[in-house]
Amino acid sequence: MKTDRLHARDLTLRYEERTISRNLSVTIPDGSFTVIVGPNACGKSTLLRALSRLLLPAHGSVILDGKAISARSSKDVARRLGLLPQSAIAPEGITVADLVARGRYPHQSFLRQWSLEDEAAVTAAMAATHVTDLSDRLVDELSGGQHQRVWIAMVLAQETPLLLLDEPTTFLDIAHQIEMLDLLADLNAGGRTIVAVLHDLNHACRYASHLIAMKDGGIVAKGPPQDVVTQQLVQAVFGLASIVIDDPVSGTPMVVPKGRRNSASRPGNETGMGETERFAIPADIGMTLR
After folding, report:
1. Among residues 212, 221, 252, which one has the least CA distance to residue 6?
2. pLDDT at 2 over 70
3. Which of 16, 116, 120, 161 has a 20 to 30 Å separation from 229 between CA atoms?
4. Shortest CA distance to 200 belongs to which of 157, 163, 169, 166?
5. What is the DSSP code string of 67-100?
């Protein structure tokens, strides 16, 4: 019987005396592209940290491949799960090539040193993230967007069946955001389970096969984006009045915020936004929820 690779039961998550979540249970469907969304400080990154063993739950357990993740060695976890945290810090003076190569550490041992397989994995990861030309540069010298792509390359070089990414499109311009999400979608189509925290709800709707909406440390809704994202959900979770239409490119839900001044009240548009006009909205306009 097939079981899901990663799930958590009855988690209580806290930082010192501050409790973020109580009685939190979640299952990451195996083979899914799962995206976690929600307002700032709702517990998205905290949940991801618990799922990756960076944060030890005060209560409850995280199960990875049928065994409590806390009972696995660090190297064992790193062979099964790759993590891109929100604020990754590189060692001072390290080059891009050397940082990406560190993604192969879980596969090394006293008897297994650097191999052609490792070299191939690093080369492929750098090519996929378009950082090959930066290989000899110091990571300290890179722009925010380049820095983010290099870290993603390191995670890809691990070649794990599970990838957890906290805001992987941070610092990337719109073209590189779409390129990165397309890459993750390709990896998912190739068999990897992807879990990502995203702020852009429209990007989440377009790329996710499974959406988890959080508020105040709990899960409000979960499931396919077309079943989860409604005007009522956006209002309840984000406190935002909106309309939800079909994305004209992907057919997935697309959230259009009303804002304080909607288009119907502006001069020259007294009749409001008609059915034809509303589908003329550019498909890549996202709702950035920061």
Report:
1. 212
2. no
3. 161
4. 169
5. EEGGGS-HHHHHHHEEEE-SS--PPTT-BHHHHH
Is it the case that residue 278 has pLDDT exceeding 90? no
Distances (CA, A) of 147 to 70, 151, 159, 172: 30, 6, 20, 10
- How would you class 180 by CB atoms within 10 Å of its CB: exposed for 0-12, middle for 13-18, buried for 19 or more? buried
User: Exposure pattern of 22-60 as b/e (b: 16+ CB <10 Å)?
Assistant: eebebbbbebbbbbbbbbeebbbbbbbbbbbbebebeeb
Residues shown for the chain: 290
State which amino acid sits at residue 222. Answer: K
DSSP classification of residue 132: G
pLDDT digits (tens, 9 = 90+) for 11-60: 999 999 899 999 999 999 999 999 999 999 999 999 999 999 999 999 99
- State how far the Cα of 227 lies from the Cα of 221, in Å rounded to an integer: 9
The structure's pTM equals 0.84
Encoded tokens for 102: 């560190």
The C-alpha atoms of residue 19 and residue 15 are separated, in whole angstroms, by 6
